[in-house]
Amino acid sequence: MERRTPGSVGLLIVFAGVALMISSAHAAPPSVPSVPPLTGDWGGPQVRLQLTETGGKLDLACASAIIDMPVRPDAAGKFVVLGRYDSFTGGPTPADAAPAMAKAHFDGHVEGDTMHLSVHRHGEKAAENYTLERGRRVKLIRCG
């Protein structure tokens, strides 16, 4: 059996402490709590946005869109989410006509109760831009 001197026990404790500090320095950072998604009704001139914890629905005079994910702004209030967009024209639509949903992404930023939203349809160069207010009620006049 090996005898340890008081000095060697102290050295062992120091090495163990250093090893513990090094391993904790390389441990995963503490998780940051997830920012809750924006929810509720948002409205602007001829645009209505209804957000839930899982996504949302955008209604326009001659189009509608589905947001397929929660809208979670970063610390600067900016966000980018994916979804689908369907534009339509006035007049009767055949009952068996499938919606012409196209991929889209939505980006913008929130400042207090104001949201600046840009809608980018897949294959289109220009974006549609809207300014919405939280809680604003809107009556849409559909294209006809």
Please describe what this structure looks like:
This protein is mainly beta and 144 residues long. It has 1 helix and 8 strands; from the N terminus they run αββββββββ. An 8-stranded antiparallel barrel has the order 1-2-3-4-5-6-7-8. The N and C termini lie far apart (95 Å).
**Topology order in helix (H) and strand (E) letters:** HEEEEEEEE
Spatial separation of the terminal alpha carbons: 95 Å
Instruction: Decide which structural class fits the backbone.
Output: mainly beta
- Mean residue pLDDT: 81
Structural Rg? 27 Å
Q: Give the tally of β-strands.
A: 8
Residue share in helix: 10-25%
The parts where pLDDT drops under 50 for at least 5 residues are 11-32
Report the portion of residues in β strands: 35-45%
Strand order of the largest sheet: 1-2-3-4-5-6-7-8
| Biggest sheet details | 8 strands, antiparallel, barrel
The coarse overall form would be globular
Give the count of helical stretches.
Answer: 1
